């Protein structure tokens, strides 16, 4: 068991009782290690097991089998020790309180929290700090959850669809804020449907499908593979190859024109491994 990693899971399995007492497996023997300081994206279609994995890391549910350690201890120890912060999709906010009052209230429950004004600024909430939570947009409420996650100055940030409800401009601001945390050495593990977010921000991508890990690597590694070569030679042709340089040289020697080489995208990898398109497509 790796007690030095930010997250270490071995043989992690989670089953639920479905309709008619049918057992539904949400995770199947997942092994995963996230080293401290890493920025890791969890990708996968709906039902892939992303949220279940996050719930297990946060101690919100217990595994049917296997183990998970978080910053060297149990998930509960990580949460109570303020070593982990989380931005979830829904819940946890009181609509009649102001943004600033919400952050101040949660700060009062923590030991040595970061200054309220500082986390409001990091989450781009200073301008609406006196606004009632119930009047905030979905994106603003997500930024408020981010501010609450920062209060305990955590070593690990867990984000479950953190930009849900945000427009493109707010998404851009959110990830700028997250880069500040990453530059401070905070480990970031986030689940998203948006492949562009994973490609732009993550240094490593873990792709889940059917409760298992089907790919794990850097964005460049996951995109490395076949390329499509299109060309004209007595008609228009398209060929898929793993050696575009050799093919292109041969085609040009034979007089081919209008040569076009297209690399595999992250979206192509996602579709090939899961048979699904991303939410963003």
Our Rg estimate from Cα atoms comes to 22 Å
- Oligomeric state of the chains? single chain
Could you estimate the helical fraction of the residues in percent? 25-40%
Shape: globular
The side-by-side strand order for the widest beta sheet comes to 5-6-7-3-8-9
Enumerate how many helices there are, as a single number: 10
The counted number of beta strands is 12
At the fold tier of CATH, the topology name of the largest domain is: Rossmann fold
Amino-to-carboxy terminus distance: 39 Å
Largest sheet: 6 strands, mixed
Task: Report the CATH C-level class of the largest domain.
Answer: Alpha Beta
- Helix/sheet category: alpha/beta
Second rung of CATH, namely the architecture of the largest domain: 3-Layer(aba) Sandwich
Please indicate the count of domains: 3
The CATH homologous superfamily of the largest domain: P-loop containing nucleotide triphosphate hydrolases
- Helix-strand topology string: EEEHEHEHHHEHEHEEHEEHEH
Nearest-integer average pLDDT: 89
Share of residues in strands: 25-35%
Question: What low-confidence regions span 5 or more consecutive residues with pLDDT below 50?
Answer: none
GO molecular function, one term: ATP binding
Organism: Corynebacterium kalidii
Main location: membrane
Domain ABC transporter: 7-235
Structure description:
The chain is of the alpha/beta class. It folds into three domains: 1-83 and 154-224 and 266-281, P-loop containing nucleotide triphosphate hydrolases (Rossmann fold, 3-Layer(aba) Sandwich), CATH 3.40.50.300; 93-152, no CATH class; 226-263. The chain is 32% helix and 28% strand. The chain contains ten helices and twelve strands. The chain has helices at residues 50-57, 75-80, 99-107, 116-122, 138-150, 168-183, 195-201, 219-223, 244-253, 266-274, and strands at residues 7-17, 23-34, 39-43, 65-70, 84-87, 156-160, 187-191, 204-209, 212-217, 227-232, 236-241, 257-263. The strands form three sheets. The protein has a six-stranded mixed sheet with strand order 5-6-7-3-8-9, with helices on both faces. It has a three-stranded antiparallel sheet with strand order 2-1-4. A three-stranded antiparallel sheet has the order 11-10-12, with helices on one face. Strand 10 (227-232) and strand 11 (236-241) form a beta hairpin. The longest helix has 16 residues, at 168-183. It starts with 6 loop residues before the first strand and ends in a 7-residue tail after the last helix. The mean pLDDT is 89.
């Amino acid at each position: 068991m790796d007690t030095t990693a930010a997250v270490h899971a071995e043989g992690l399995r989670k089953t639920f009782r479905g309709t008619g007492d049918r057992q539904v497996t949400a995770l199947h023997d997942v092994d995963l290690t996230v080293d401290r300081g890493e920025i890791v994206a969890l990708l996968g279609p709906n039902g892939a097991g992303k949220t279940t994995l996050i719930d297990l890391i946060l101690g919100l549910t217990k595994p049917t089998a296997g183990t998970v350690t978080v910053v060297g201890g149990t998930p509960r120890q990580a949460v109570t020790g303020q070593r982990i912060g989380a931005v979830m999709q829904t819940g946890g906010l009181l609509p009649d309180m102001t943004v600033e009052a919400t952050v101040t209230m949660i700060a009062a429950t923590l030991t040595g929290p970061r200054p309220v004004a500082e986390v409001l600024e990091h989450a781009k909430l200073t301008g609406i700090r006196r606004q009632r939570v119930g009047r905030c947009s979905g994106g603003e409420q997500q930024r408020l959850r981010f501010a609450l996650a920062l209060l305990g100055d955590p070593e690990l940030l867990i984000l479950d669809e953190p930009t849900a409800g945000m427009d493109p401009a707010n998404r851009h601001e959110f990830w700028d804020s997250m880069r500040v945390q990453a530059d401070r050495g905070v480990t970031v593990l986030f689940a998203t449907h948006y492949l562009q977010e994973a490609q732009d921000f993550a240094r490593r991508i873990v792709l889940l499908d059917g409760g298992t890990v089907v790919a794990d690597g850097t964005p460049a590694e996951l995109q490395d593979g076949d390329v499509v070569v299109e060309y004209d030679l007595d008609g228009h042709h398209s060929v898929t190859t793993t050696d575009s340089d050799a093919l292109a040289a041969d085609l040009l020697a034979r007089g081919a024109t209008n040569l076009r080489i297209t690399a595999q995208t992250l979206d192509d990898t996602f579709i090939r491994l899961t048979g699904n398109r991303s939410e963003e497509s």
